[in-house]
Design goal:
Elements lengths: L1 H6 L17 H5 L2 H16 L7 H14 L2 H7 L4 H20 L14 H6 L31 E2 L4 E4 L2 E9 L10 E2 L5 E6 L6 E6 L4 E4 L5 E4 L6 E2 L2 H13 L6 E4 L3 E3 L3 E4 L13
The structure holds zinc ion (ZN).
């Protein structure tokens, strides 16, 4: 009866309790105090002008939605004007893409599954170039590892996550032109020849850590994922099938074709471990 009464509410629901009586088991199970706080916080963010949204606002909205299972509410019951819906859906997707481009999804606790409702609500138009979101950097948790998750030394076989996706180093060429035989410091100036997503339709790329450039050795044109901007491939099928499934939960793929084979390297994170899935863009 209680559930029916609560869920039939149209405008406002008032619950009264007696201090002399123990709190209702239903309210305890519903974690009502935390839930009401979360709802108040979401309302506060939604009442702001989208121009003023900071990364921390949207991250707390996303966290509350996941924690309290509010996805269905936003999907089916949220009666907001269309513009407000797209403003929120776009802002969240832009935030996600900016975090993804920097390799911060894991540190910010963001998952592709969280994006499904926003992509369905209002897909983000394809954006070019590096993405940014105000205040995103300040939301990172303090890095207690001091960044040691990245190996200090790199060598043939070391994995890396760059703007095009996951790759494995094959060879390292020093500024003298000499090929390094052992390992070098991660920060050493070098050109890396790497195999992008080895084992599939392996693509060879060159990563120039001096010029901060990424070059597709054997391609004149490539395809870029329009959802995250952090997956580039010669092979459109890899993007449409494998990457879209692994990184975007199989939501409709979007891409653009680029008539270029050189890119600015904005992201290059090394990992001693291979990734769980080479088509995903999450840091290990
Ligand atoms: Zn993508």
């Amino acid at each position: 009866m209680f559930y029916v009464a609560v869920t039939r509410t149209k405008q406002q629901l008032c619950l009264h309790g007696l201090h002399s009586e123990p709190q209702s088991q239903f309210l305890t199970e519903a974690k009502y105090a935390m839930t009401l706080d979360a709802v108040a916080e979401i309302q506060q963010v939604l009442a702001c002008d989208p121009q003023d949204w900071q990364a921390s606002d949207l991250l707390s909205v996303l966290r509350h939605i996941t924690a309290f299972g509010l996805e269905r509410y936003f999907q089916q019951w949220w009666a907001a004007p269309r513009e407000q819906k797209s403003a929120l859906a776009h802002a969240i997707q832009r935030l996600y893409a900016a975090a993804q481009q920097r390799g911060w999804l894991t540190r910010l606790n963001l998952t592709p599954a969280q994006m499904a409702i926003w992509q369905a609500m209002a897909p983000l138009p394809i954006e070019h170039g590096p993405l940014d979101f105000p205040g995103l950097e300040r939301c990172l948790p303090p890095d207690n590892s001091g960044g040691v998750s990245e190996p200090a030394m790199i060598q043939a076989g070391t994995w890396l996550l760059c703007d095009a996706g996951w790759a494995r180093i094959e060879r390292m060429v020093l500024p003298s032109g000499e090929v390094a035989t052992g390992s070098v410091r991660r920060t050493a100036p070098a050109r890396l020849l790497a195999t992008l997503r080895p084992g599939t339709d392996a693509e060879v790329i060159e990563i120039d850590l001096i010029e901060r450039r990424l070059v597709f050795e054997e391609a004149e044109r490539v395809f870029v994922c329009g959802r995250c901007n952090t997956f580039i491939s010669r092979d459109l099928n890899l993007l449409l099938n494998q990457h879209n499934r692994a990184a975007h939960g199989g939501t409709g793929p979007r891409y653009r074709q680029a008539q270029q084979n050189k890119w600015t390297l904005s992201r290059c994170v090394f990992s001693a471990q291979p990734p769980a899935n080479v088509f995903e863009n999450l840091s290990v």
